[in-house]
Amino acid sequence: MLDVQAMKSLAQQITQVMPWVQGIDSDQQYDELLALMDELVEDYDANQVLIDLLFPVLQEYEESAERFKAFNQRIDALDPGVAMLWLLIDQHDLTQSEFQQEIGGKSLVSQILSGKRSLTLGHIRALSKRFGIPAAMFV
Fold first, then answer.
1. Predicted structure pTM score
2. CA separation (Å) from 112 to 37, 79, 94?
3. Close Cβ partners of 28 (under 8 Å, ≥ 6 residues apart)
4. Looking at residue 55, what is its pLDDT?
5. Quick check: 126 and 103 in contact, CB under 8 A?
6. Residue 28, exposed/middle/buried by CB under 10 A (0-12, 13-18, 19+)?
7. Does 123 have pLDDT greater than 90?
8. How large is the average pLDDT for residues 10-24?
9. For the chain, what is the total number of helices (H) and then of strands (E)?
10. Distance CA 3, CA 69 (A)
11. How big, in percent rounded to 5, are the helix, strand and coil portions of the chain?
12. How far apart are CA 41 and CA 124, in angstroms?
């Protein structure tokens, strides 16, 4: 049987300890929660429930806060394939010249990243295979 009173008491305690659990009210709260999340992900398995509870709070703030408005607009305007290519470059610490096998020369990669050219189906398949990610991540 559910102990509603215990749940209410626990919810009050959580709100007192983590005031942003119901939403972030300030940049300071965002910074605090971000620092906490950095600490929690160090031991993801032990903290998964808490991370899963707090992640949507961060996500909501990042999607709606004025401080992220310009960034979000730039991201929304990016072609998904270009965004994924930038992410791969960043995550794997790659240079534009390291895609010879999948895309071609540095100048073609540069043209794709700048939006002057598009990734082809062949490029997407090759990138998908190299990085072990679904091709759908590029579309």
1. 0.61
2. 34, 10, 15
3. none
4. 94
5. yes
6. exposed
7. yes
8. 92
9. 7, 0
10. 42
11. 75, 0, 25
12. 31
Residue type present at position 100: Q
Q: Give the chain's length.
A: 139
What are the pLDDT digits (tens) for 52-101? 999 999 999 999 999 999 988 988 888 999 999 999 999 999 999 999 99
If you write DSSP's letter for every residue of 11-69 in order, what string do you get? Answer: HHHHHHH-GGGG---SHHHHHHHHHHHHHHGGGHHHHHHHHHHHHHHHHHHHHH-GGGH
Q: Are 127 and 102 in contact (CB under 8 A)?
A: yes
Token pair listed for 139:
């579309």
**CA 129 – CA 116 distance, rounded (Å):** 24
Spatial contact of 129 and 135, defined as CB atoms under 8 Å apart: no
Rg (CA), the chain: 21
